[in-house]
Write a structure and sequence with these properties.
The model has no long low-confidence stretch (mean pLDDT about 95). The protein is of the alpha/beta class and about 575 residues long. It contains 22 helices and 22 strands.
């Protein structure tokens, strides 16, 4: 049957059809929907793990137990999973194991623009890269066969444009796989030095055999057209090349580690001018040049930054550049912003008002760095807010702890914030940590986490208490505050900053977009009482604007959270019910 599918949905369908039994992931755009879609199949056990390292270890354990398994993450999540990733290359697998990683060229939802192909090279693992939704399905199935035949985990790399674009997919039936019988084999799975030395030999032999496979696999193919121009490419760049330069000859790579040196040389001999079109780093180009293949154009044409496109490829290769729709006037910039009713807004307003240094983290609350809230000083990676603040305060002395806080979300706290908090208490630090508990994993689209009391499949489960975790970590001062209560929020921050010991404030209010959170009637501004002081603008709510010199609230956006109402000293902001009275 043919269906229109997102790349991520098609990858999940590939998991289903290939007989995958166990999926463990951590949500991260643009990879999230693979696991969400996989969870809709009853035959697949699917879970959200607390972080990517745990997810990779669960998938490896399931593989050793004989099941086909998968773990998914975004590119920066692969950093977190790197520890088990590198060792899994040595242990090999039982049942087939795939590690899905979605890169984010252009940084649409990420803090950096790293190229995950380097992990495949460094860990000495095969990596496949699909170019459309059909290949997402097909390459997953191929990767499982490859995993089991060569006794190796396989990296499955996508990117935002493949993961989140749709194309036609022909689906098939599920092929059930019996568990691979488990046999105790410490030489293979116990990675102490004596055993690891022997397994390293196996890894190198495996890579040599995979290099031979790269020359003949159907994932790598030559498409000969005009021999004047030849282009080596992979993934989404293949689509750009086919649209921008349809007459060119193309070597399309699907198995991108190891690369096929013989096939590349063969293709280079068949064309007059050779280009390499790839996003981010010159992985393919460097391989070509290192093996004596002359490349006319690569990164000196296409650069190291951001995404490519049909237009960019056409322009750089001297082809007619497609002209898109031209608007008669500039389109206004629409910067990202915290949603109306966001529970983080009141906290960030308070922190900005108090002028404290704020060590930030990854999630919706990163938007607190933007004007007019302008609250965050740093954002590095998951969990770094807490441990980073500890280091900041150690460097600057005890007085610094009275003027600085860390902010971290509930899901991120479970992911990697707990260890930073333990570091503070264990080493007698004085830092104040604020956990922004909005009862969901927000930025990636509302996934459950250990603090919500529900699993990925919405089954009830024990709810991890943030308060008790903090107490168990050695924090004696733990308090819960509603961040929309500005007076209570400010009092809590002031008191905990003054304390002579570590403290945690849990700013608890559910995300305004959760289905069970009912919006109140929208607020309105009484023009007779409004003094146009613009105090309500200080919270940066997108529902509030100034039009023709008058303040206004957009009733289609306002959720009636009352935060702006508490900002108005003149009683000009009222509920629609109050106005009707």
């Amino acid at each position: 049957m043919k269906q229109l599918m997102l790349g991520n949905q098609a990858a999940a369908r590939g998991l289903y059809e290939a007989g995958c039994r166990v999926v463990s992931s951590y949500p991260g755009t643009p990879s999230t929907e693979i696991t969400e879609a996989a969870s809709t199949y009853e035959e697949i056990y699917a879970e959200w793990a607390p972080n990517e390292k745990v997810a990779c270890e669960v998938a490896l354990g399931a593989s050793i137990g004989g099941a086909r398994s998968f773990c998914g993450m975004k590119h920066v999540g692969l950093n977190v999973a790197a520890d088990p990733l590198f060792t899994a290359s040595y242990t090999g697998v039982g049942g087939g194991m795939i590690i899905g990683v979605a890169d984010d060229q252009g940084m649409h939802s990420s803090q950096n623009e790293q190229d995950s192909r380097h992990y495949a090279i460094a860990a000495k693992l095969p990596m496949v890269e699909p170019a459309d939704s059909q290949e997402c399905l097909d390459f997953v199935k191929y990767a499982y066969d490859l995993s089991e035949e060569y006794d190796t985990p396989v990296l499955f790399r996508t990117c935002t444009r493949v993961a989140h674009s749709q194309s036609i997919v022909e689906t098939g039936e599920r092929q059930e796989r019996e568990l691979v019988p488990y046999q105790k084999n410490p030489q293979k799975y116990v990675m102490m030095p004596a055993n690891a030395i022997g397994r390293h030999v196996v890894v190198e032999e495996r890579m040599a055999r995979l290099a031979q496979l790269a020359e003949t696999t159907p994932l790598n193919r030559i498409e000969m057209n005009d021999p004047k121009v030849g282009i080596i490419t992979a993934g989404i760049c293949y689509q750009y090349v086919k649209e921008a330069v349809p007459q060119a000859s193309v070597l399309k790579l699907g198995l991108i580690n190891p690369l096929p040196v013989g096939l590349i040389r063969q293709f280079a001999q068949q064309v007059e001018t050779l280009y390499v079109v790839e996003e981010l780093d010159p992985v393919i180009e460097t391989f070509c040049r290192a093996n004596g293949v002359a490349v006319t154009g690569g990164k000196e044409l296409f650069g190291l930054l951001g995404e490519l496109s049909q237009r960019k490829v056409a322009e750089k290769l001297g082809q007619p550049v497609p002209q898109g729709l031209q608007f008669g006037e500039p389109v206004p910039v629409r910067p990202p912003v915290l949603c109306p009713g966001c529970p983080h807004r009141g906290l960030f307003y308070t922190l900005h008002k108090l002028g404290v240094m704020v060590s930030g983290d990854i999630g919706c609350y990163t938007l607190g760095a933007l004007a007019p809230l302008s609250a965050l000083d740093t954002t590095v990676c998951m969990g770094a807010s807490i441990s980073g603040l500890h280091g900041f305060n150690i460097a600057r002395g005890p007085e610094s702890a009275k003027k600085s806080v860390a902010v971290i979300g509930d899901s991120t706290f479970m992911h990697s914030g707990i260890t930073g908090l333990i570091d503070i208490t264990y080493n007698r630090g004085l830092s104040t940590v604020i956990v922004l508990d909005n009862s969901i994993t927000g930025m990636t689209g509302h996934q459950q986490n250990p603090t919500t009391g529900l699993t990925l499949k919405n089954q009830p489960t024990p709810q991890v208490s943030i308060e008790k975790v903090c107490e168990a970590a050695g924090v004696k001062r733990v308090r819960v505050v509603d961040p929309n209560d500005l007076k209570a929020m400010e009092q809590a921050v002031r008191e905990e900053l003054a304390a002579e010991e570590p403290s945690v404030i849990i700013a608890r209010r559910p995300c305004a977009l959760l289905k069970y959170v009912k919006a109140k009637p929208s607020l309105v501004i009484d023009p007779d009482k409004c003094k146009n002081c613009r105090a309500c603008m200080k919270i940066g709510c997108p529902a509030i604007s100034s039009f023709s010199g008058r303040m206004a609230i957009d009733e289609t956006l306002c959720v009636g959270c009352d935060l702006c109402k508490s900002m108005c000293a003149f009683g000009a902001i009222k509920s629609s019910a109050e106005v009707e009275q």
